[in-house]
Amino acid sequence: MSRKYMRTILAILTSAAIAAGCASPAPAASSGESGTAAAGEEAETVGANDSSDSNKNAEAVSSDGTEVDSQKSSGDNEAAEQAGMAESSEAPEKTVLTQSPTPYEKYGRLQICHLPADNTAGFTAALCDESGNPVQLVGMSTYGLQVPHGSWLLNDAAMDAVAADFQCDVLRLCMYITNTGYAVQPGPCLERVEQGIEYATERGMYVIVDWHILNPGDPNAPDYLEAGVNEPMYEELRQAHPDYNGPQLFFAYLSEKYGSYGNVLFETANEPNGIADSESGAAEAWSRVLKPYHQSLVDVIREHDSDEYPNIVICGTDSWSQYVDSPADDPVTDPASPEAAQIMYALHFYAGSHDTEPSADGTYYLGSKIDRALAHGLGVFVTEWGTTENTGDGAVNYENSDRWLDFLAERGISWCNWSLGTISEGSAAIYFHADKEPIDTDADGIPDFNAPNKDGYSVEATGTQLTESGTYVREKIRAAHE
Q: 384 catalytic, yes or no?
């Protein structure tokens, strides 16, 4: 994010904070389309004793070896509650590696700040920290957690590498519903999501829970609405709310359990597609099909939130989350914050396929949609983007990736790159023979993928366990913190 941009938006936010309802919804801060195909592998079963209850009372260690109290111990519950992070006093303490300060220590509970319509920034909503300062989160998305190519990183060493070596602010947990996903094995998939939340929370990262629809493209399809409805873990919710469908049960459960976690965001539909017959009908299709779907989940999330501070909800839009401006005249309402909705809208792109050339007037197709959404007061979060073509494969498009990242930085738009998968496709960041539990290869005390694997194998183009895409994106994430 440019210093000029930061100065401009900070000045606007400071002068407009009270009038625009930009007061922090949380206590004082703590310290300080894409159409990517899902793999058709056999899904692995998660053991009942896997580390889904990972301890959040973790002692974090920064990359320079400094110990950081990432989450307070059980004797410090009051301070931890003020930070918006839930406590677990049952699990033993352990040491984890992360940034110092952690992303959560830097920014605290996030909020959407709403600006006056006549401000000079060109838009009226921004992702902000607890104090109302604009922030841009940068990080990665997992591959589908239902398959080994996605679930491999659910261990301490891999998560240490994501947090401390990649230096991710945010991790998106991609949970496919179809493609051997949650609809087939809801219990194991939910357990992996919970593991991911705990691992990220221990390291002070933000985490997005992604209800990953793709095919069929309508989130109201029976494949999704019926997913997980008979699972035993939802018994109490079903008794209290017999009308709840699959996604409502899922998000009600997570909101009750993790709503007090100030680092958790919810993405209610990955990439709706095929809803509108044409782009001209996108706004009508949004109001008729997608808004009611998202509204029902926002209402459920708010009803079951375990504290008074609303977690941000990110809503997917039609055409593989490209029609991000379609809600401009009919946004989702937020019962917890009617005048300052804590709602954002997802935009997805792949640098090898989208906005590769400007229009005659010098503008870009998706870029213009983002600017229109921002101008209408919608918060935008790029929850998925790739360096390659929209198939997830192909060569890295360095030039357009650079242009896209500059565009997002100028507008303070946060992003997650696709993906931390170990699948053999161009957009995957990690070598498919990478060590599942990486070690420190460069003597800086942090597990990493910056050398061949333990058997001496590596990606030919990089000489490491990072692909060309992974090497590029890691450098971009780390550079964002300089």
A: yes
